[in-house]
Structure formats: structure tokens, C-alpha cells
Design goal:
By secondary structure, the chain is α+β, with helices and mostly antiparallel strands. It has 6 helices and 12 strands.
Length: 305
């Protein structure tokens, strides 16, 4: 039912006049280099706009931002700027040595109350539809648990997927260089402040539910390309979801100020085909095997390239 509503929302939102999308595109700066636009799964230098979407929710979020919010706030900003220029030019002291004593205008009062209300209603309708689909979690094909610690993540896979868990920590500059020299990938495969020692691997086109909590202080699980963000609160279990439609690696970070190393708490989700996921899962069950009740935290799986 939830997936059906999601499909209806996609059709309804994308069914609005195409000229709105064209109008949003005209607001971009045509002279900007291609590097200014967001990359896939991670930010780009001098980025303009949101990251390239990789889930239906992220696609609708970007559409809502670019086709509705951006044109509206641009028009409002230009209108306010025009009013300011007119006021400065028309009512400056040299032209008006005697200030106006006008204190009330019924038509103006009605206009600046009614027009903002109508604008907010126009924004609210697609916004509420999108919010509904974000918080309505469909039946999951895979459920994983993300636990935030100061300052790393721990991910747990369910019993039917092996019942293992592993920690995710950011690679230092030295570790990134060593990985490249060891032939594990190119330098671009280990982006600074985003590359991690262990990646979360999920299959493409599958609904993944993520249970989010914390073991010490407040954190937040966020993956921009999935339009996913959930607070990680000690003693509380929040939940979010995504269905990645593109293969690749998608980086996220803690989005709640949690202490001195908050900026060094990334995570990486690699989306692969079902065949590659099955192969990774078989390997992960061995490498993250438990010794008694304690998981082996030092084991690392090689990235699925």
C-alpha cells in the first residue's frame, strides 16, 4: 500500500506543468563549470544544488526543491529587492523632506496577509505528500541497524542475513594513500573525509529499512543522495528507509553535532547487484563471525568494486 501511494505521489508531482521545470532550469547560472553541479553519491567542489538523487524519494525531493521552492523563493527575493530599491529611490530624504504620516491601508494589509497564505498552501500540498512517503515505511526486503558512537558507526545485519555486525570509521590521509599504493583502487575511490574502512553493502532496487539509535550521545544518520536523515537518540529506536535505484557508492555523515570529532564520522553505502550482494554477504558472514557473544571488530571486507 505504501509503495502504491509512493507511485501515485510520483505521478502526481511529475504531472505538473513541464514549464515549471524549465523555469527552474533558467534560474541556474549557465556559465558555471560542470564541477559546480553535484556528483553521484558525494558532494562536488563548488557544488550548486542537491546531490544527484539515487532513490525515488530523493528524486521527488530534488524535483520539489528545483521546480517549486526555488522559483518561488527567487521571485519573492527579486520582488523584495525591487521594493527596497523603489523605496530608497522614491522616499529618500532629498525628495521627501517632510516624512509621510500614512499609517494604514486596508487593501495592503489584506494583500500581504492573503498572498503569503496562498503561497504557503501551494508549497504545503506537495510537501505533505512527500513527507508522508518519507515516513511511511513499506515492507522491507532487508533491515539493518545503525548505531552511532563517538565517533564511529556500528552496523548490524539481521539473523536471516547472517547476524553479523561491524564498525565503520573514517580513513585517515595516511590510510587512504596506503590503500591506493596497495592497489585497492584509485585516489578518487577514497575521497578525503568520506572514505571509510568498512562499507555497508545493499542490493539495488530493494527496500532497505534502517533502524537508527545511538550508544552515547545524540547523532544523526544521513545520506543526501537518498534524501535520508534520521536522528540517533540513546535509548530510542528511530527508523527510516530507502530503495536505491542506481548502483554505486553513496556517502553520508553524522548530521547532529556530537562532539569534537563530529566532522570525522562518515559512512558509506555501496549499492550492488543481487549477485554481488550475495557474494559479499557470504564473505561477510565469515569475516565478521562472532567469537562467543563478541563480534570480531577488526575484520574488514574488501570493497565491492
Amino acid at each position: 500500500m505504501a509503495m502504491k501511494r509512493l507511485g501515485e505521489t510520483e505521478r502526481n508531482m511529475r504531472g505538473l506543468p513541464a514549464r515549471m521545470l524549465a523555469g527552474a532550469g533558467l534560474l541556474g547560472l549557465a556559465g558555471l563549470p560542470s564541477a559546480a553541479w553535484a556528483g553521484m553519491g558525494q558532494p562536488s567542489p563548488w557544488q550548486m544544488g542537491l546531490q544527484t538523487p539515487a532513490t525515488p524519494i530523493a528524486e521527488n525531493t530534488q524535483w520539489f526543491h528545483d521546480a517549486i521552492l526555488l522559483p518561488i523563493i527567487t521571485v519573492i527575493s527579486l520582488f523584495v529587492l525591487l521594493l527596497l530599491v523603489m523605496v530608497v529611490a522614491k522616499f529618500k530624504a532629498s525628495k521627501n523632506p517632510v516624512p509621510s504620516k500614512t499609517t494604514h491601508h486596508a487593501g495592503l494589509e489584506v494583500a500581504w496577509t492573503l498572498i503569503p497564505v496562498l503561497i504557503l498552501v501551494a508549497i504545503a500540498v506537495p510537501s505533505f505528500r512527500l513527507l508522508r512517503d518519507q515516513v511511511t515505511i513499506p515492507k522491507a526486503d532487508l533491515t539493518i541497524k545503525a548505531t552511532g558512537y563517538a565517533w564511529y558507526w556500528k552496523f548490524t545485519y539481521p539473523q536471516d542475513a547472517g547476524g553479523f555486525e561491524f564498525e565503520v570509521r573514517m580513513l585517515s590521509d595516511e590510510e587512504r594513500i596506503a590503500a591506493v599504493k596497495a592497489g585497492k583502487g584509485k585516489e578518487a575511490d577514497f575521497p578525503r573525509l568520506l572514505a571509510v574502512d568498512n562499507e555497508v553493502v545493499v542490493p539495488v532496487n530493494k527496500t532497505v529499512a534502517v533502524q537508527v539509535t545511538a550508544g552515547d550521545v545524540l547523532h544523526a544518520f544521513a545520506v543526501p543522495s537518498f534524501a535520508v536523515k534520521a536522528d540517533a537518540v540513546p535509548g530510542r529506536l528511530n527508523q527510516t528507509w530507502f530503495r536505491a535505484t542506481k548502483e554505486g557508492i553513496f556517502y553520508g555523515q553524522c548530521s547532529e553535532l556530537c562532539g569534537k570529532d563530529h566532522a570525522f564520522m562518515p559512512l558509506a553505502i555501496r549499492v550492488v547487484s543481487q549477485e554481488k550482494y550475495d557474494a559479499w554477504l557470504a564473505d561477510a558472514k565469515k569475516k565478521y563471525a562472532r567469537i562467543g557473544d563478541a563480534p570480531v571488530q577488526t575484520a574488514q571486507t574488501d570493497p565491492v568494486r
